[in-house]
Specification:
This protein is an alpha/beta fold. It is built from 17 helices and 25 strands. The N terminus is likely disordered.
Length: 542
């Protein structure tokens, strides 16, 4: 299969007439159309072929061959620089026995003999014998002489070898008092080779830091991947001034081929002045390509490592129910100040107790602020209607509910709470506006089509489990598409710019090679992007 991909400086400058399509507009006023007329970077008309033909005399026609045409995908929660840098590191996604994992790590290390550190990501908790965490001995057996640092697919646990622990000075006597844990051998007390949450930084701080040229090259690789997947907008769920500067440089070079918004990370001990600084970024970055004006708060961790804050103890570790990184008082104070400054708030909350804490903290804020809770992997039934009542957006990742990855997750919280897992349909039924994303690179795929497949089927691409995993929480194709397009634009307060196909909006459009509305649901994952139009120009074509 051949395709081409060129950057914005080199794209066709013609006006475009996309004709003979099956256009899903996400616009309630006109849900379906055949033709789209684009002038410059904007959509100027949407309608039947006959209607648009009268206006399109000077436009370059593109025959859509009746293929499904939708607004560009908007990934509402990811970490794009980290994902882009990871494209050149070990990728353990989908490799799931200790022996094959070790073989891939050994192969990669041999192919990169000059790398001082062996780094990568993607290992899954369920892939180690007996459900245990990976151990340093597993790595020492294949790479004893170079430090190794590998993050789990969710980004919340690191796997390191003895050389890495030695360089970091982590011994039996090392104490860690922050949010997280140095996992230890239960018999000896020695560090076992896994680091949870904040403890990951004890080794991560030693990793080679890529320079600006390396970061820019990585972002360009990420941009090419995004274009091939129809992703025309992203919402970075963490950010920094340095990262903003990278996107500014790409924009200056006319190489920025998606729209990026940023939420800046903040901790419970951050001074109020930091919030004021982030509010100033909102005024500086508010254009159609780069925008800021949000903050990111980590309320808890993840279920697989028992760091998500739960209302009741973990089923297979009853001595703990996880812990929150913020007190209710700290959270309420910070979100109140941030809201008054006009900042939008993203709160990472996976456990049902963390979700409730976030909702409680938002309870006295205006419902029009569009504050968000990220992930919401578990939720108590009594909290479902609070999202709509408070105007809080559930920002969720269907790819995290792939049944192939939830064995350890389900064992940790037991069958009763598992039945409340990833409650997309229940939230939608309760009046909430669903927002979808990938959490890349903390996920098994950044592809929106894979996310839609999971949202609609709750089954793996191979059809397991046969009846679906909690099938009552499936959503329709229409709901899933809205969550990846118009609702995502709403979630970044940009629905006046993008997210649907209607006159006056930016021309970010994707054509698929299969119709998601008519193919058998279990074939959704097979769909590919045939054409990506960004800013009114053809960016990718297969």
């Amino acid at each position: 299969m051949r395709f081409f991909l060129v950057f914005a400086c080199c794209l066709y400058a013609d006006d475009l007439w996309l004709r003979n399509g099956k256009v899903w507009t996400a616009d309630p006023a006109r849900p379906w159309a055949q033709s789209i007329l684009i002038k410059g970077d904007a959509i100027v008309a949407v309608g039947t072929d006959a209607e648009i033909a009268k206006l399109a005399a000077s436009a370059r026609p593109i025959d859509l061959a009746k293929r499904l045409t939708i607004p560009g995908f908007n990934d509402a929660h990811l970490h794009f620089l980290g994902g882009s840098l990871g494209l050149s590191q070990i990728d353990l996604t989908g490799i799931c026995t200790l022996e094959t994992i070790q073989a891939e790590i050994k192969r990669f290390a041999a192919a990169h003999p000059n790398d001082k550190w062996v780094t990568g990501r993607g290992w899954e908790y369920l892939c180690f014998p007996g459900g245990r965490l990976p151990a340093r001995a597993d790595l020492d057996a294949i790479i004893p002489d170079r430090p190794v640092y590998l993050s789990a697919y969710d980004g919340h646990t690191a796997w390191v070898n003895s050389k890495a622990l030695q360089l970091a000075g982590i011994t039996r006597e090392t104490k860690y008092s922050g949010y997280g844990e140095i996992v230890r051998d239960s018999k000896t007390g020695e560090p076992a080779g896994a680091l949870k949450e904040g403890a990951m930084s004890l080794v991560r701080r030693l990793l080679p830091v890529p320079g600006t040229p390396e970061k820019l090259r990585a972002l360009e690789s990420g941009l090419r991947l995004a274009a091939s997947l129809g992703i025309t907008s992203i919402q970075n769920a963490n950010g920094s001034l340095d990262e903003l500067a990278l996107y500014e440089e790409l924009e200056r070079q006319r190489k920025l081929t998606l729209r990026a918004t940023f939420a800046m990370s903040i901790g419970p001990m951050e001074p109020e002045a930091t919030l004021a600084e982030f509010a100033a970024l909102r005024r500086k970055y508010n254009g159609p390509l780069i925008s800021a004006g949000a903050i990111k708060i980590m309320m808890d961790g993840v279920i697989e490592s028992y760091t998500a804050a739960m209302l009741d103890p973990y089923t297979n570790r009853p001595a703990t129910s996880g812990s929150a990184a913020w007190t209710p008082e700290q959270f309420a104070k910070t979100v109140s100040i941030a809201d008054k400054l006009g900042l939008q708030i993203f709160t990472h909350a996976i456990g049902d107790r963390a979700v409730r804490m976030a909702l409680d903290g938002y309870a006295n804020l205006p419902a029009t602020s569009r504050h968000r809770i990220e992930h919401i992997e578990t939720i108590h039934p009594s909290d479902l209607p609070r999202f709509a009542a408070l105007g809080v957006l559930p920002s969720m990742q269907p790819i995290h509910a792939d049944p192939a990855t939830i064995e350890v997750w389900s064992a940790a919280i037991g069958p009763v709470r598992t039945q409340r897992g990833f409650a997309w349909h229940s939230l939608e039924k309760a009046g909430a506006r669903l927002v979808f994303s990938s959490d890349w690179p903390a996920s098994i795929s950044v592809n929106p089509i894979r996310g839609i497949h999971n949202a609609v089927n709750r089954r793996t691409t191979t059809g397991l489990p046969p009846q679906g995993w909690i099938p009552a929480e499936r959503v329709s194709v229409d709901t899933a598409l809205r969550a990846y397009t118009v609702n995502s634009a709403y979630a970044s307060r940009e629905e006046h710019r993008k997210g649907s196909i209607r006159p006056g909006l930016l021309a970010d459009i994707v054509v698929l090679d299969q119709d998601l509305f008519t193919v058998p649901p279990m074939d959704i994952h097979r769909a590919k992007v045939a054409l990506t139009v960004f800013n009114g120009r053809v960016l990718y074509q297969k």
